[in-house]
Amino acid sequence: MTNPRVGIIGIGQSAFRARRDDASYPDLVREAVNLALADAQLELDDIEAIVYSLSPDAMVGIGNAERLGVDAVGARNKRFLRINTGGATGISSVAAAYYHIAAGACDVIMTAGADKVGECGDSQTVLNKIWDPTYERSLPLGTITMLAMSGIRYAHKYGMSEEDMAGVVVKNRRHASLNPNAHLSKQTTIEEVMTSRYISWPIKLFDCCPQSSGGGAIVLASEKYIKDRKLDAVWITGVGHCSESYYLGDRMGRGFMADHADAHALGESFKRAYKMAGITDPQKQVHVAELYAPFSNTEFHSIEAAGLSGLGQSVPELRAGRFNIGGEIPVNASGGTLCTNAIAVTAMIRLAEAALQVRGTAGGHQVKGARVGIASGNGGDHQFFGTMVVEA
Amino acid sequence: MPLNRRIGVIGSAISVPAEPNGQSLEELLYELVQSALRDAHLTIDDIDGIIVAANDQYDGRAIAVMAASGSVGGVDRDILSTPSASDHAFVMGVLRVATGQYRTQLIVSWSPTEVHSIAEAQRLAADPYFHRRLPLDDMASFSLQASVLDSKVAGAEQIAADFNASRGSVGSHQAKRSLISDGMSSPPVTGAVALIVADADFIAEHGMKNIAWLKGMGWATETGFLGDRDLSTAPALEAARDQAYGEAGITDPRHAFNALEIADPTPYQSLIVLDVLGISKRADWEKDIAAGAFAPGGKLNFNPSGGARAANPVFCTGLRSIVEAANHVRGAASSQAEFALAHAASGFAMQYHGVFIFGTQN
Question: Is residue B14 part of a domain?
Answer without folding.
Answer: yes
